[in-house]
Write a structure and sequence with these properties.
By secondary structure, this protein is an alpha+beta fold. The chain has a five-stranded mixed sheet, with no helix packed on it. It has helices at 26-33, 98-105, 115-128, 134-140, 152-159, 169-172, 174-185, 204-213, 228-231, 267-273, 279-286, 291-294, 299-305, 312-318, 414-420, 427-440, 451-471; strands spanning 2-3, 5-10, 13-18, 52-59, 62-69, 82-84, 188-193, 196-200, 218-220, 239-242, 252-254, 258-262, 322-326, 331-335, 340-342, 345-346, 353-360, 366-372, 383-392, 395-404, 411-412. The termini are far apart. It is built from 17 helices and 21 strands. The chain binds flavin-adenine dinucleotide and FE2/S2 (inorganic) cluster (FES) (2 copies).
């Protein structure tokens, strides 16, 4: 069934927005139409967390709660979801939610501009996890900035939640909310508003039908890149197809040869899945934006954006990943190696979309990845590097090395690979491999790093990788 209305659950009932402005942000709607001003605007680009709200989404008849940045979320994507704002945490009897109480008790709030965002991130943690270990707490608030109290009181408040009763008023109302969500869940959206178009199909076939008549459209997945053209560049996006409404494309499969990730799968799901196969992939994803970003952002969006500092890209290149493309008629499978053509340009053609990504499983290889950025959390890479090595009887039998931040596109270090191939890992070889990087890359200076610094850390990461392999005896007695 198609609808031009956006329906969502708010405060235990269904809200309907008729034919909304397709470029309006959720934050703007919350503050100006719902008149709920607890949610703040700080940066308007997903970086500070002041606008954090929580969405409830139905998955296998259960509600999954996700903290997101409402400043870079387009309003129509609210369709079929539960909206939870900081004002809604207080119960009907006027009692503070355990998370709010903890923030008060531990003096976690001073100026209060960041506080609603912190409260919502901690609320999302409270609903998602059963134990609040240090790493869970730190990860949960990695997307929230505070300049006043410092983080210690907030962390102490979060720790104190461990003994709290988890049955809050949301848990008590769960059945009712699930029933409401079921009523509005299975619905495709088509909105025409003042020359702007928005489509949220439910199936790939439906997507293709829309594409037939709207070849000049923009695909919107998590919107963590695309929406910034509205919030920062003040541009209009005239035609949008929302990909994350297609649950058919939200999957992770594994056939023992490769992991296939559907285009609409949020990175947060890949982050836990891939840990078993490539722990360093998870390590990088943990530092990819923030939970608010990873709750919606996709690998497909990262690939299509083709930024030279896209963090998935060197990892996927070193793992020799393939990208599955579809258009109205055909499916094409390309090696990612051949996908990036020049700065932010790819082989994607008009009307073609990324269907999925295939990540080969190298059982016997060592995979290592590193991200160097100015700040540990929620920062863009200065350099990101990934190493995929097969070592047999002391020698490197296969090697794929790729870097982000070193060229106009994410790129393999071919000369460096040549030096390492069929070699023992000795000090001399490491030195030669480092030198070869000067042939591979001519990095530029920008606000994130100078070209000299980039080259220096790129070289040092080769050494770091080799030393770690040696120290951890990842290849047994070969050194
Ligand atoms: C605060 C913040 C922090 C960030 N931190 C990081 C970081 O640490 N590392 C990093 O690499 N990136 C980071 N990013 C960038 C961004 O989050 C990633 O590039 C993300 O993976 C984009 O995915 P998305 O689903 O949000 O894409 P969207 O914004 O929805 O789309 C991005 C582009 O891809 C196209 N597209 C989307 N899906 C498809 C598809 N299925 N087929 C074809 N084209 C498609 C869109 O049309 C658009 O051009 C950050 C962004 C923000 C705002
Ligand atoms: S306002 Fe800063 S993340 Fe949204
Ligand atoms: S209390 Fe967070 S910025 Fe002041």
């Amino acid at each position: 069934m198609n609808s031009c209305n956006v329906e969502f659950v708010y405060q235990n009932r269904i809200f309907k927005i008729k034919n909304p402005n397709t470029n309006e942000t959720l934050l703007n709607y919350i503050r100006t139409k719902l008149k709920k001003t607890g949610t703040k605007e700080g940066c308007a680009e997903g970086g500070c967390g002041a606008c954090t709200i929580v969405l409830g989404e139905l998955k296998n008849s259960e509600i999954k709660y996700k903290a997101i940045n409402s400043c870079i979320t387009l309003l129509p994507t609210l369709q079929g979801k539960q909206l939870i704002l900081v004002e809604d945490l207080i119960s009907k009897d006027g009692l503070l939610h355990p998370v709010q109480k903890a923030m008060v008790n531990y003096h976690g709030s001073q100026c209060g501009f960041c506080t609603p965002g912190f409260v919502m991130s901690l609320f999302s943690m409270f609903k998602k996890y059963s134990k609040f270990e240090d790493n869970v707490i730190k990860d949960s608030i990695a997307g929230n900035l505070c300049r006043c109290t410092g983080y210690q009181p907030i962390i102490k408040a979060a720790k104190s939640l461990k003994n709290k009763n988890k049955i809050d008023h949301f848990a008590k109302n769960k059945k009712k909310i699930i029933n409401l969500l079921k009523k509005i869940n299975n619905r495709s959206i088509v909105i025409y508003n003042k020359g702007k178009r928005y489509f949220a199909p439910q199936y790939v076939q439906e997507l293709k039908k829309i594409l037939k008549k709207n070849i000049d459209t923009n695909f919107l997945s998590g919107g963590t890149d695309l929406s910034l053209s509205v919030t920062k560049e003040r541009k209009d996006i005239s035609s949008i197809i929302y990909m994350n409404s297609i649950s058919e494309l939200n999957y992770i499969k594994n056939n023992n040869k490769y992991i296939e990730v559907g285009a609409s799968t949020p990175l947060i799901e890949l982050e836990s899945y891939i840990k078993k196969y490539y722990p360093d992939f998870t390590k990088i994803l943990k530092r990819y934006g923030s939970p608010q970003i990873r709750n919606v952002a996709t690998m497909a969006g990262n690939i299509a954006t083709a930024s030279p500092i896209g963090d998935c890209l060197p990892l996927l290149l070193s793992l020799n990943a393939k990208v599955v493309l579809q258009d109205l008629k055909k499916t094409k499978i390309l090696f990612l190696d051949n996908f990036f053509t020049s700065y932010r340009k790819t082989k994607l053609k008009k009307g073609q979309f990324i269907h999925s990504i295939r990540i080969p499983l190298f059982e016997n290889n060592i995979f290592k990845a590193y991200k160097v950025s100015k700040r540990f959390d929620d920062d863009i890479s200065s350099v990101c590097a990934a190493f995929n090595l097969e070592i047999v009887k002391n020698k490197i039998k296969n090697v794929r090395i790729a870097y982000g931040g070193m060229a106009a596109i994410p790129k393999r270090a071919i000369y460096c690979e040549k030096v390492l191939l069929n070699s023992l890992i000795t000090e001399e070889i490491i030195h030669k491999a480092k030198k070869a990087l000067e042939k591979d890359f001519k990095p530029i200076s920008d606000m994130r790093a100078s070209r000299l610094y980039r080259m220096e850390i790129a070289k040092n990461l080769i050494e770091k990788c080799c030393v770690e392999i040696k120290q951890k005896k990842l290849i047994g007695v070969y050194f």
